[in-house]
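Hi, here's the filled form for the chain we discussed.

Project: internal
Contact: R.S.
Residues: 283
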Amino acid sequence: MVYSFIPGLSAAPDGKQTAFLQVISPEWSRFFRYPAESFRVERHPLRIRVGESVFGESGAAVSILQDGMRISGEIAYSAFQPIRKSFYCPTVMGPFSYLRFLECSHDVVSINHSLKGALNVNGETLNLTGGTGYLERDAGKSFPRAWVWYQSNCFSRPGDGVMLAAARVPIGPRAFNGLLGVCRAGGREYRLATYFGGGLERVRRSGNVVCIAARQGERRLEIRVRAGVSRELKAPLLGDMSRAIREYPCCDSAVRLTEGKRILLEDRGACAGFEQVGSLDEF
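And the returned structure, exactly as it came back:
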């Protein structure tokens, strides 16, 4: 069982602002709109309000009554497991995070944290206690033309988590393949990224099976995803949430992370999230 909540504020080319809250599950997806003035952000500590729902560092309080949907509940988070940061890497994008002209920016807030609480969805109570959470954030006017994204923290060893994103990143009239990969295995973080000399080796799809391989020196990450049912996800296009893409919110996957002859992580990643947008020939 997977539930994703995406609160945000969009600004269309004509200047009109709209607050929104996307909710995605394996069975359905919904895009709820709210007046822009109902969106509030506090950064220290992080706290986001959209309508009557609040998302913060300690947990989430959800209250949605719209379009025939009734979703409510309170979820408490354990302490976040943030990624390593430095002057060179203030976010997961590394030094690219200083390039304000990029069409979008990305960061990982928590690679893994535990959950306690429940959701009530149209009268059905869903117990989330004992589950795991993941938190990332995006900003910008448009998403790339083509990308792949993978995330899971449902491994047999508690605390392990993997996120990988690869995209065609435009800079002026040109574009390059950008790679962001964070693996937490056995209490240690391993990074694969363009700014550390890493890159994609391949992305291949056969039916509903996608195989991704990335390398950085002797470090190699292999991911095999069996994509299940996809759900619609709204994405920004010139600031407006008008682009419809598909996300696979609950996939079976297998991950293998090696460094030379050492196996750092080799496990099944359950309840994985996956996106493939655009042609794989772009990479």
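Let me know if anything looks off before we file it.
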